[in-house]
Amino acid sequence: MKLARHYLLPDISQPGKTGCSLPQLDVPPSELPPEELLRRELELPEVSEVEVVRYFTALSKLNYGVDTGFYPLGSCTMKYNPRLHEDIVQLPGFASIHPYQPIESVQGALQLMFELQEYLAEITGMNAASLAPMAGAQGELASILLVKAYHQSRRDKLRKKILVPDSAHGTNPATAAMCGFEVSTIPSNKEGNVDLESLESMMNEEVAAVTLTIPNTLGLFDPQIAEISHLVHGRGGLLCGDGANLNSVLGKVKFGDLGIDCVQVNLHKTFSTPHGGGGPGSGPVCVKASLAEFLPSPLVAKNAGGYVFTTPPVSIGRLGASYGNFGVMVKAYAYIRTLGAEGLREVSENAVLNANYLKEKLKAYYYLPYARTCMHEVVFSGKKQKAKGVRTLDIAKRLLDYGFHPPTIYFPLVVDEALMTEPTETESKETLDAYIDAMKKIAREVEENPEILHTAPHNTPVRRLDEVRAARHPDLRWRMGNQVKITNPKH
Ligand SMILES: *Cc1c(COP(=O)(O)O)cnc(C)c1O
Q1: How far is residue 439 from each of residues 78, 93, 308, 418, 434, measured CA to CA in Å?
Q2: pTM of the entire structure?
Q3: If you measure from the C-alpha of residue 258 to the centroid of ligand 1, how many angstroms do you get, rounded to a whole number?
Q4: Does domain 348-472 have CATH number 3.90.1150.10?
Q5: Binding site membership of 245 for ligand 1 (Cβ less than 6 Å)
Q6: Ligand 1 in contact with 242 (CB < 6 A)?
Q7: CATH second-level architecture of 83-339?
Q8: Using one digit for the tens of pLDDT, what is the confidence trace for 364-422?
Q9: Using CA positions, which residue lies closest to atom 6 of ligand 1?
Q10: How many angstroms separate the alpha carbon of residue 266 from the centre of ligand 1?
């Protein structure tokens, strides 16, 4: 086995080196601040311009993203998005406007927001939409606050519980708890659907709502949705959807037709803004007419004089200072207009086709707990490999050696050693085949050379990280003598 070479990125700083030459002073020198305000030492690297350029270029090449390779991180929809939409959002009429400028001067922006509200209501089969929420989780927060406002308006004080299936996204129970509800978990049945008997026994006049991630985090579409809706509404509850992963059902299924009362959609993920990296998001909430009067403000309305911001009569209020993340809205609008109804339908067809292709090609090698047609993602279990002493974490790390970002692992929790794989609609058959090949090679290595998996990754810039420390105490700043420890500089 090849031993990894450890070394420090050489400290390129040398006293006296400079990156630029300033012209001769041709104005009177200005006074320096008083002595006590001046620093004695300033630890900055002394380097030439080309060294700085190379240092940062080298750092940038250590990164992995959708622009460098396949990124099947389940539930996150790490798909490639058209560059054209990045150009559109940079148009000065979009990029240079200010939230507080006179409304008459931003009529085009308001028109875009108005039409986007309408498109999203149409796509989800709902009656109204608010673009205010700035993330998927904030859209869920809006949904649950709407549920609360709805029951309060009916003086229905008993409803303090929210039921969440165990196959829901983790933000669903967290959001319900944040809004002061008690959360109870509905178990899934053997097929990966909501266990109807359990739901039936749990659904009473204390339940404010049931939240359904559609498709659920097993990547499955629950065919019993009509029964669920009947049960929940029959006992006075509301049905909330989590539509973060809309790229699986666009143009195929409308949440409104399923009996859903409110649903948030993630414009990042589905509609042309990358998810991840902590960048701006947008999680509009779409509702049936019965909830429209509570929607978060502002909404955009059209009247005789043009477009205006409005606040619904008993709005749950604002979710942020201004109007949501406008740039993300522009890209979503451009995406919807570019693709049209037919194109949006194809997005979902390809997302589902790609996931099912992976499923069929890999199911002989990795255990498939729910052997049925999946939606935009497929969840395998590393259970067979675990029996040979190789964990899903090892498989994920080994994938890095083959040049792929691993799938989401150990989530959803209902699957032992889960590998939640979302290829997305933008990947070609060649890329999927290369990934399938790598996964098959890894399955063979589990049999023949498990050690190579335990010690993976071998050829990445850094080896296994203390992920908790990296997340809690990120070291993002250059400090003298504190360079990144790099294993394979040529990577
Ligand atoms: C991504 C996701 C969320 C959360 O969205 P954020 O924008 O990251 O807050 C919620 N539910 C599901 C199903 C998701 O996939």
Answers
A1: 19, 47, 54, 14, 9
A2: 0.90
A3: 20
A4: yes
A5: yes
A6: yes
A7: 3-Layer(aba) Sandwich (3.40)
A8: 999 999 999 999 999 999 999 999 999 999 999 999 999 999 999 999 999 999 999 99
A9: 136
A10: 7
